[in-house]
Amino acid sequence: MDQQQLRELAAALVKIPSENPLDGPVGETKGERRLAEFVASTLREAGISCELQESVPGRPNVLARVPGESEETVWFDAHLDTVSAEGMEFEPYQARIEGDLLQGRGAADDKGSIAAMMAALIRLARSGSKPPATVLFTATADEEYKMRGMQGLLDSGVTARAAVIGEPTGLEVVAAHKGVVRFSVITRGKAAHGSVPDAGENAIYKMAKVVQALEAYAKRGVGISSHPLLGRGTLNVGVIRGGEYVNVVPDSCVVEIDRRILPGEEPRKAVSELRSYLANAVEDVDAEVTSPTLTVPGMDLPGDHPLAVAVLEAVKQITGKAALGTMSGATHAGPLNRAGIPAVVFGPGAMGQAHTATEALDLNQLAQAADIYELLMRNGATP
Ligand SMILES: [Zn+2]
Protein backbone atom coordinates (compact mmCIF):
# COMPACT_ATOMS: atom_id res chain seq x y z
CA MET A 1 0.00 0.00 0.00
CA ASP A 2 1.71 3.18 -1.20
CA GLN A 3 1.22 6.75 0.04
CA GLN A 4 -1.52 7.57 -2.46
CA GLN A 5 -3.47 4.44 -1.53
CA LEU A 6 -3.04 5.29 2.15
CA ARG A 7 -4.51 8.79 1.58
CA GLU A 8 -7.41 7.25 -0.30
CA LEU A 9 -7.98 4.77 2.51
CA ALA A 10 -8.07 7.57 5.14
CA ALA A 11 -10.52 9.53 2.98
CA ALA A 12 -12.71 6.46 2.51
CA LEU A 13 -12.86 6.00 6.30
CA VAL A 14 -13.89 9.64 6.80
CA LYS A 15 -16.67 9.23 4.21
CA ILE A 16 -18.35 6.57 6.35
CA PRO A 17 -19.97 8.38 9.32
CA SER A 18 -19.53 6.59 12.65
CA GLU A 19 -20.81 9.01 15.25
CA ASN A 20 -21.16 7.60 18.72
CA PRO A 21 -24.91 7.25 19.36
CA LEU A 22 -24.28 7.37 23.15
CA ASP A 23 -27.23 5.45 24.63
CA GLY A 24 -29.51 6.25 21.67
CA PRO A 25 -30.34 4.16 18.60
CA VAL A 26 -27.88 3.58 15.78
CA GLY A 27 -28.91 5.24 12.52
CA GLU A 28 -27.71 6.81 9.29
CA THR A 29 -24.73 8.68 10.74
CA LYS A 30 -24.79 7.03 14.17
CA GLY A 31 -23.03 3.79 15.02
CA GLU A 32 -19.90 1.94 13.98
CA ARG A 33 -21.26 -1.04 11.99
CA ARG A 34 -20.75 0.27 8.46
CA LEU A 35 -17.24 1.43 9.20
CA ALA A 36 -16.38 -1.82 10.99
CA GLU A 37 -17.57 -3.84 7.98
CA PHE A 38 -15.52 -1.69 5.61
CA VAL A 39 -12.38 -2.09 7.74
CA ALA A 40 -12.90 -5.86 7.97
CA SER A 41 -13.55 -6.35 4.26
CA THR A 42 -10.53 -4.23 3.30
CA LEU A 43 -8.28 -6.32 5.55
CA ARG A 44 -9.79 -9.60 4.30
CA GLU A 45 -9.13 -8.56 0.69
CA ALA A 46 -5.48 -8.26 1.70
CA GLY A 47 -5.60 -11.83 3.02
CA ILE A 48 -5.70 -10.92 6.71
CA SER A 49 -7.94 -12.98 8.99
CA CYS A 50 -10.49 -10.79 10.63
CA GLU A 51 -13.53 -11.07 12.90
CA LEU A 52 -16.25 -8.79 14.21
CA GLN A 53 -17.12 -8.90 17.88
CA GLU A 54 -19.96 -6.99 19.53
CA SER A 55 -19.48 -5.68 23.05
CA VAL A 56 -22.41 -3.32 22.48
CA PRO A 57 -25.28 -4.83 20.42
CA GLY A 58 -25.16 -3.60 16.80
CA ARG A 59 -21.86 -1.78 17.35
CA PRO A 60 -19.03 -4.18 16.47
CA ASN A 61 -15.30 -4.10 17.14
CA VAL A 62 -12.96 -5.41 14.43
CA LEU A 63 -10.16 -7.83 15.39
CA ALA A 64 -7.43 -8.77 12.91
CA ARG A 65 -4.35 -10.85 13.46
CA VAL A 66 -1.10 -11.47 11.63
CA PRO A 67 0.55 -14.48 13.31
CA GLY A 68 4.08 -14.11 14.62
CA GLU A 69 6.92 -16.45 15.46
CA SER A 70 6.25 -16.48 19.21
CA GLU A 71 3.22 -16.87 21.45
CA GLU A 72 3.49 -13.21 22.37
CA THR A 73 1.12 -10.58 21.05
CA VAL A 74 1.60 -6.89 20.39
CA TRP A 75 -1.67 -4.99 20.20
CA PHE A 76 -2.43 -1.99 17.97
CA ASP A 77 -5.76 -0.30 18.65
CA ALA A 78 -7.64 2.71 17.26
CA HIS A 79 -11.29 3.61 17.76
CA LEU A 80 -14.05 3.55 15.13
CA ASP A 81 -16.44 6.06 16.66
CA THR A 82 -16.36 9.84 16.43
CA VAL A 83 -18.13 12.63 18.25
CA SER A 84 -21.11 14.28 16.55
CA ALA A 85 -20.53 16.39 13.43
CA GLU A 86 -23.01 19.04 14.52
CA GLY A 87 -21.70 22.58 14.20
CA MET A 88 -18.81 21.71 11.87
CA GLU A 89 -17.69 24.49 9.55
CA PHE A 90 -17.64 22.33 6.43
CA GLU A 91 -19.44 19.27 5.09
CA PRO A 92 -18.17 16.69 7.61
CA TYR A 93 -18.22 13.55 5.43
CA GLN A 94 -16.99 14.80 2.07
CA ALA A 95 -13.35 14.06 3.01
CA ARG A 96 -12.01 17.04 1.07
CA ILE A 97 -8.25 17.31 0.72
CA GLU A 98 -6.84 20.87 0.99
CA GLY A 99 -3.10 20.82 0.33
CA ASP A 100 -1.77 18.29 2.81
CA LEU A 101 -4.84 18.30 5.02
CA LEU A 102 -7.70 15.80 4.93
CA GLN A 103 -10.78 17.51 6.35
CA GLY A 104 -13.73 15.90 8.07
CA ARG A 105 -15.23 14.64 11.28
CA GLY A 106 -13.01 11.86 12.52
CA ALA A 107 -10.11 12.67 10.15
CA ALA A 108 -7.71 13.10 13.07
CA ASP A 109 -9.72 11.40 15.81
CA ASP A 110 -9.39 8.60 15.03
CA LYS A 111 -9.53 7.58 11.36
CA GLY A 112 -5.96 8.69 10.64
CA SER A 113 -4.73 6.16 13.19
CA ILE A 114 -7.03 3.43 11.83
CA ALA A 115 -5.80 4.03 8.27
CA ALA A 116 -2.12 4.10 9.29
CA MET A 117 -2.46 0.90 11.33
CA MET A 118 -4.36 -0.85 8.52
CA ALA A 119 -1.71 0.18 5.99
CA ALA A 120 1.07 -1.09 8.24
CA LEU A 121 -0.76 -4.39 8.78
CA ILE A 122 -1.46 -4.86 5.07
CA ARG A 123 2.19 -4.18 4.15
CA LEU A 124 3.32 -6.63 6.82
CA ALA A 125 0.92 -9.35 5.64
CA ARG A 126 1.80 -8.86 1.95
CA SER A 127 5.53 -9.02 2.65
CA GLY A 128 5.05 -12.62 3.80
CA SER A 129 7.69 -12.27 6.52
CA LYS A 130 6.62 -13.41 9.97
CA PRO A 131 6.87 -10.79 12.73
CA PRO A 132 8.56 -11.80 16.02
CA ALA A 133 5.27 -11.45 17.94
CA THR A 134 1.70 -11.87 16.70
CA VAL A 135 0.27 -8.53 15.66
CA LEU A 136 -3.28 -7.89 16.84
CA PHE A 137 -5.08 -4.92 15.33
CA THR A 138 -8.41 -3.80 16.80
CA ALA A 139 -10.72 -1.05 15.60
CA THR A 140 -13.01 -0.50 18.55
CA ALA A 141 -16.46 0.93 19.18
CA ASP A 142 -17.65 3.39 21.84
CA GLU A 143 -14.34 4.98 22.83
CA GLU A 144 -15.86 8.46 22.90
CA TYR A 145 -18.54 7.52 25.43
CA LYS A 146 -18.08 4.58 27.77
CA MET A 147 -15.23 2.60 26.20
CA ARG A 148 -17.49 -0.44 26.17
CA GLY A 149 -15.87 -1.80 23.00
CA MET A 150 -12.44 -2.02 24.60
CA GLN A 151 -13.83 -3.18 27.94
CA GLY A 152 -15.65 -6.00 26.14
CA LEU A 153 -12.42 -7.16 24.50
CA LEU A 154 -10.58 -7.14 27.84
CA ASP A 155 -13.49 -8.96 29.54
CA SER A 156 -13.42 -11.64 26.83
CA GLY A 157 -9.76 -12.31 27.62
CA VAL A 158 -7.99 -10.46 24.81
CA THR A 159 -4.51 -9.62 26.08
CA ALA A 160 -1.02 -8.70 24.91
CA ARG A 161 2.55 -8.09 26.05
CA ALA A 162 2.34 -4.45 24.97
CA ALA A 163 -0.07 -2.11 23.25
CA VAL A 164 0.06 0.96 21.05
CA ILE A 165 -3.07 3.10 21.13
CA GLY A 166 -3.55 5.24 18.03
CA GLU A 167 -4.85 8.71 18.86
CA PRO A 168 -3.92 12.10 17.40
CA THR A 169 -0.80 12.92 19.41
CA GLY A 170 0.97 14.79 16.60
CA LEU A 171 3.49 11.90 16.47
CA GLU A 172 4.48 12.52 20.08
CA VAL A 173 4.79 9.46 22.30
CA VAL A 174 2.37 9.80 25.19
CA ALA A 175 3.21 7.61 28.17
CA ALA A 176 1.14 9.44 30.81
CA HIS A 177 -2.35 10.83 30.87
CA LYS A 178 -5.16 11.51 33.29
CA GLY A 179 -8.18 9.32 33.85
CA VAL A 180 -11.78 10.37 34.23
CA VAL A 181 -14.75 9.60 36.44
CA ARG A 182 -18.26 10.83 35.61
CA PHE A 183 -21.20 10.97 37.98
CA SER A 184 -24.16 13.15 38.95
CA VAL A 185 -25.36 15.18 41.90
CA ILE A 186 -29.11 15.33 42.49
CA THR A 187 -31.14 17.68 44.68
CA ARG A 188 -34.77 16.93 45.49
CA GLY A 189 -37.58 19.26 46.45
CA LYS A 190 -41.34 19.21 46.55
CA ALA A 191 -43.53 20.13 43.60
CA ALA A 192 -46.21 22.81 44.02
CA HIS A 193 -48.08 25.20 41.77
CA GLY A 194 -45.89 28.08 40.66
CA SER A 195 -48.39 30.56 42.06
CA VAL A 196 -47.82 29.27 45.62
CA PRO A 197 -44.05 28.58 45.73
CA ASP A 198 -44.03 28.51 49.53
CA ALA A 199 -46.14 25.35 49.38
CA GLY A 200 -43.22 23.55 47.69
CA GLU A 201 -39.47 23.17 47.97
CA ASN A 202 -37.46 24.38 44.99
CA ALA A 203 -34.83 21.82 43.93
CA ILE A 204 -33.16 24.36 41.62
CA TYR A 205 -32.52 26.78 44.50
CA LYS A 206 -30.91 23.90 46.38
CA MET A 207 -28.78 23.01 43.37
CA ALA A 208 -27.68 26.64 43.01
CA LYS A 209 -25.96 26.33 46.42
CA VAL A 210 -24.45 22.98 45.43
CA VAL A 211 -23.10 24.39 42.15
CA GLN A 212 -21.44 27.29 43.98
CA ALA A 213 -19.84 24.85 46.38
CA LEU A 214 -18.65 22.72 43.43
CA GLU A 215 -17.05 25.74 41.80
CA ALA A 216 -15.21 26.59 45.01
CA TYR A 217 -14.12 22.93 45.35
CA ALA A 218 -12.78 22.87 41.78
CA LYS A 219 -10.95 26.18 42.15
CA ARG A 220 -9.27 25.13 45.38
CA GLY A 221 -7.65 22.20 43.54
CA VAL A 222 -9.00 18.67 43.67
CA GLY A 223 -7.66 15.24 44.50
CA ILE A 224 -4.18 14.04 45.32
CA SER A 225 -1.24 16.40 44.97
CA SER A 226 0.23 17.37 41.65
CA HIS A 227 1.78 14.93 39.12
CA PRO A 228 5.16 16.02 37.66
CA LEU A 229 3.92 15.79 34.05
CA LEU A 230 0.16 16.11 34.35
CA GLY A 231 -0.36 18.72 37.06
CA ARG A 232 -3.51 18.44 39.14
CA GLY A 233 -6.85 16.74 38.77
CA THR A 234 -9.82 18.85 37.71
CA LEU A 235 -13.59 19.00 38.13
CA ASN A 236 -16.12 20.39 35.65
CA VAL A 237 -19.90 20.73 35.95
CA GLY A 238 -20.88 20.04 32.35
CA VAL A 239 -24.68 19.58 32.37
CA ILE A 240 -27.55 20.89 34.49
CA ARG A 241 -31.18 19.77 34.24
CA GLY A 242 -34.09 20.76 36.45
CA GLY A 243 -37.74 21.70 36.26
CA GLU A 244 -40.41 20.80 33.71
CA TYR A 245 -42.74 23.79 33.50
CA VAL A 246 -42.27 27.44 34.36
CA ASN A 247 -45.40 27.43 36.53
CA VAL A 248 -44.37 24.46 38.67
CA VAL A 249 -41.95 24.42 41.62
CA PRO A 250 -39.28 21.93 40.47
CA ASP A 251 -38.99 18.78 42.55
CA SER A 252 -35.60 17.68 41.24
CA CYS A 253 -32.42 19.04 39.69
CA VAL A 254 -29.38 17.15 38.38
CA VAL A 255 -25.85 18.18 37.47
CA GLU A 256 -23.42 15.92 35.64
CA ILE A 257 -19.80 16.07 36.72
CA ASP A 258 -16.61 15.25 34.83
CA ARG A 259 -13.75 14.72 37.25
CA ARG A 260 -10.28 14.17 35.77
CA ILE A 261 -8.09 12.03 38.02
CA LEU A 262 -4.34 11.47 38.14
CA PRO A 263 -2.69 8.09 37.53
CA GLY A 264 -2.91 6.14 40.77
CA GLU A 265 -5.93 8.10 41.97
CA GLU A 266 -8.82 5.79 42.81
CA PRO A 267 -11.97 6.83 40.85
CA ARG A 268 -14.42 5.82 43.60
CA LYS A 269 -12.38 7.70 46.17
CA ALA A 270 -12.65 10.86 44.07
CA VAL A 271 -16.44 10.47 44.26
CA SER A 272 -16.57 9.73 47.99
CA GLU A 273 -14.31 12.72 48.72
CA LEU A 274 -16.73 15.00 46.93
CA ARG A 275 -19.63 13.41 48.80
CA SER A 276 -18.09 14.28 52.18
CA TYR A 277 -17.11 17.76 50.98
CA LEU A 278 -20.69 18.55 49.94
CA ALA A 279 -22.09 17.18 53.20
CA ASN A 280 -20.05 19.83 55.03
CA ALA A 281 -20.07 22.68 52.51
CA VAL A 282 -23.85 22.78 51.99
CA GLU A 283 -25.13 21.42 55.26
CA ASP A 284 -28.67 22.65 54.72
CA VAL A 285 -29.02 20.83 51.36
CA ASP A 286 -29.44 17.10 51.08
CA ALA A 287 -27.51 16.48 47.84
CA GLU A 288 -27.29 12.92 46.50
CA VAL A 289 -23.95 12.06 44.85
CA THR A 290 -24.54 9.07 42.53
CA SER A 291 -22.21 6.19 41.73
CA PRO A 292 -19.99 6.76 38.68
CA THR A 293 -21.43 6.12 35.21
CA LEU A 294 -17.91 6.01 33.75
CA THR A 295 -14.50 5.38 35.26
CA VAL A 296 -11.31 5.37 33.21
CA PRO A 297 -8.06 5.12 35.14
CA GLY A 298 -5.12 7.34 34.30
CA MET A 299 -1.88 5.84 33.03
CA ASP A 300 1.74 6.50 33.69
CA LEU A 301 4.35 4.34 31.99
CA PRO A 302 7.95 5.19 32.92
CA GLY A 303 9.75 6.90 30.02
CA ASP A 304 12.45 4.22 30.16
CA HIS A 305 9.98 1.30 29.88
CA PRO A 306 11.04 -0.92 26.92
CA LEU A 307 7.77 -0.17 25.09
CA ALA A 308 8.20 3.60 25.41
CA VAL A 309 11.83 3.28 24.31
CA ALA A 310 10.85 1.11 21.31
CA VAL A 311 8.23 3.58 20.12
CA LEU A 312 10.57 6.56 20.61
CA GLU A 313 13.28 4.77 18.62
CA ALA A 314 10.87 3.93 15.80
CA VAL A 315 9.64 7.53 15.63
CA LYS A 316 13.21 8.79 15.54
CA GLN A 317 14.15 6.36 12.79
CA ILE A 318 11.32 7.55 10.54
CA THR A 319 11.09 11.27 11.36
CA GLY A 320 14.58 12.05 12.62
CA LYS A 321 13.33 13.21 16.00
CA ALA A 322 11.15 11.91 18.83
CA ALA A 323 9.57 13.38 21.92
CA LEU A 324 7.68 12.15 24.95
CA GLY A 325 4.48 14.11 25.48
CA THR A 326 1.37 14.16 27.61
CA MET A 327 -2.28 14.69 26.85
CA SER A 328 -5.19 15.85 28.97
CA GLY A 329 -7.80 13.41 27.62
CA ALA A 330 -8.21 9.78 28.66
CA THR A 331 -7.67 6.93 26.18
CA HIS A 332 -7.86 3.14 25.93
CA ALA A 333 -4.36 3.06 27.46
CA GLY A 334 -6.10 3.59 30.84
CA PRO A 335 -8.18 0.38 30.84
CA LEU A 336 -5.27 -1.52 29.27
CA ASN A 337 -2.97 -0.44 32.06
CA ARG A 338 -5.58 -1.40 34.62
CA ALA A 339 -5.60 -4.85 32.96
CA GLY A 340 -1.81 -5.05 33.32
CA ILE A 341 -0.97 -4.39 29.66
CA PRO A 342 1.66 -1.66 29.20
CA ALA A 343 0.47 0.84 26.60
CA VAL A 344 1.57 4.06 24.98
CA VAL A 345 -0.53 6.46 22.94
CA PHE A 346 0.82 7.48 19.57
CA GLY A 347 -0.68 8.57 16.28
CA PRO A 348 -0.98 11.05 13.41
CA GLY A 349 -2.90 14.32 13.62
CA ALA A 350 -2.41 17.31 15.85
CA MET A 351 -3.71 16.92 19.40
CA GLY A 352 -5.78 20.10 19.22
CA GLN A 353 -7.74 18.79 16.18
CA ALA A 354 -9.93 16.26 17.96
CA HIS A 355 -13.61 17.21 18.28
CA THR A 356 -13.14 20.64 16.63
CA ALA A 357 -15.41 22.33 14.07
CA THR A 358 -12.57 22.29 11.52
CA GLU A 359 -11.11 18.82 12.21
CA ALA A 360 -8.36 17.89 9.77
CA LEU A 361 -5.52 15.38 9.45
CA ASP A 362 -1.99 16.18 8.32
CA LEU A 363 -1.36 13.68 5.52
CA ASN A 364 2.42 13.80 5.93
CA GLN A 365 1.99 12.67 9.53
CA LEU A 366 -0.37 9.96 8.28
CA ALA A 367 2.36 8.54 6.01
CA GLN A 368 4.99 8.73 8.76
CA ALA A 369 2.69 7.08 11.31
CA ALA A 370 2.09 4.14 8.94
CA ASP A 371 5.86 3.68 8.56
CA ILE A 372 6.34 3.86 12.34
CA TYR A 373 3.54 1.36 13.10
CA GLU A 374 4.98 -0.99 10.45
CA LEU A 375 8.43 -0.79 12.03
CA LEU A 376 6.95 -1.59 15.46
CA MET A 377 4.99 -4.51 14.06
CA ARG A 378 8.14 -5.88 12.46
CA ASN A 379 10.31 -5.53 15.58
CA GLY A 380 7.69 -6.68 18.10
CA ALA A 381 7.66 -3.20 19.65
CA THR A 382 10.91 -3.95 21.43
CA PRO A 383 13.97 -1.68 21.44
ZN1 LIG B 1 -9.85 9.62 20.07
Q: Looking at the chains present, what oligomeric state does this protein adopt?
A: single chain
Q: Report the major sheet.
A: 6 strands, mixed
**Mind telling me which CATH architecture of the largest domain this is?**
3-Layer(aba) Sandwich
Quick one: CATH class of the largest domain? Alpha Beta
- Give the strand tally: 18
Short description:
It is built from nine helices and 18 strands. With 383 residues, it is of the alpha+beta class. The two termini are 26 Å apart.
Description:
The protein has helices at 3-14, 33-45, 107-127, 148-155, 203-220, 267-281, 306-319, 333-338, 363-378; strands at 49-56, 59-66, 73-79, 97-98, 101-103, 134-140, 162-165, 173-177, 179-188, 222-227, 231-242, 252-261, 287-289, 294-296, 299-300, 324-327, 343-345, 360-362. It is globular and about 80 Å long. It has 9 helices and 18 strands. The chain has a 6-stranded mixed sheet with strand order 1-2-6-3-7-17. A hairpin with a 2-residue loop joins β1 and β2 (59-66). α1 crosses α3 (107-127), α3 crosses α9 (363-378) and α7 packs across α9 (363-378). The longest helix is centred in the N-terminal third of the chain and has 21 residues, at 107-127. The model has no long low-confidence stretch (mean pLDDT 96). The protein has 2 domains: 3-177 and 298-378, Aminopeptidase, CATH 3.40.630; 179-296, Alpha-Beta Plaits, CATH 3.30.70. With 383 residues, it is α+β, with helices and mostly antiparallel strands. It binds zinc ion (ZN). Zinc ion binds at residues 79, 109-110, 143, 167, 354.
